[in-house]
Amino acid sequence: MVMEKETKIFGIRAVIEAINADKTIDKIFLQKGLRGELFSDLEKLIRQHSINASYVPVEKLNRLSSKNHQGVVAQISPVEYYDLDNLVMNVIESGKTPLFLLLDQLSDVRNFGAIIRTAECTGVDGIIIQKKGGAPINGDTVKTSAGAVFNVPICKVDHIKDAMFHLQASGIKVIAATEKTDDTIYDVSFAEPCAIIMGSEGRGINPSVLKLVDAKAKLPMYGTIGSLNVSVACGAFLYEVVRQRL
């Protein structure tokens, strides 16, 4: 199999082999306008496995790989993802008070890494992300997390809503970090089993997702800037959980 620095696979056949071998693929970049029977077979596999894919100009592929990429470059995750059902069950059966973190299409890999690092320090039992639309786990994520990415279980789901329904059915309250509420983090109880959901850098939490949460909380803001960096905000939320549970 053709690989670069253990994080990229390039070439149509190599990527097809990786998918069929159940490699953990974060994203596939496909050259716009490319045609051919083998390329069509790859597209079918991508759809069947619900893999995150983007059609990009050849210049983008050339930047991703200096090799003969044949119009296809795949990013391989450096970690294996956990099964959400098993993870939730194991955490509940352990007897500890569950704490999960849901990231609704966070897009910046460094913010992702910083959040993973804080999550590891605050005892988060698992981080849940969506298969499509979010930041991948790559070298920058690993570096920014200071290696914590290998210590915190991460789950990928088809949609954040799927995870929310499962958590709620398991007795875990879902709390949204959003400014669209009058309640601050000091008004909400994090002492019981809970999952905190953080939104993307620009949009925040998807409105359709926000409708399904059990509670909302915001950080009090006194400056002229209306919001914090998402990784900083997440840290404030997680340490309020730690404070309440001490």
What can you see in these coordinates?
The protein has 246 residues and is α/β, with parallel strands linked by helices. The chain has two domains: 3-76, Ribosomal protein L30/S12 (60s Ribosomal Protein L30, Chain: A); 84-245, SPOUT methyltransferase, trefoil knot domain (Alpha/beta knot, 3-Layer(aba) Sandwich). Helix content is 35%, strand content 20%. It has nine helices and eleven strands. Helix 5 runs parallel beside helix 9. The longest helix has 16 residues, at 230-245. The radius of gyration is 19 Å and the shape is elongated.
Could you write a compact summary of the structure shown?
The protein has 246 residues and is α/β, with parallel strands linked by helices.
CATH topology call of the largest domain: Alpha/beta knot
Q: How large a portion of the residues is in β-strands, by DSSP E?
A: 15-25%
Total domain count: 2
Order of helices and strands: EEHEHEHEHEHEHEHEEHEH
The largest β sheet comes out as: 6 strands, parallel
Task: Give the integer mean of the pLDDT values.
Answer: 90
The CATH class designation of the largest domain is Alpha Beta
What would you say the CATH architecture of the largest domain is? 3-Layer(aba) Sandwich
How many distinct helices?
A: 9
Q: Given the C-alpha coordinates, what overall shape results? A: elongated
Question: What structural class is derived from the secondary structure elements?
Answer: alpha/beta
Q: Determine the fraction of residues in helical runs and give it as a percent range.
A: 25-40%
According to DSSP, the number of beta strands is 11
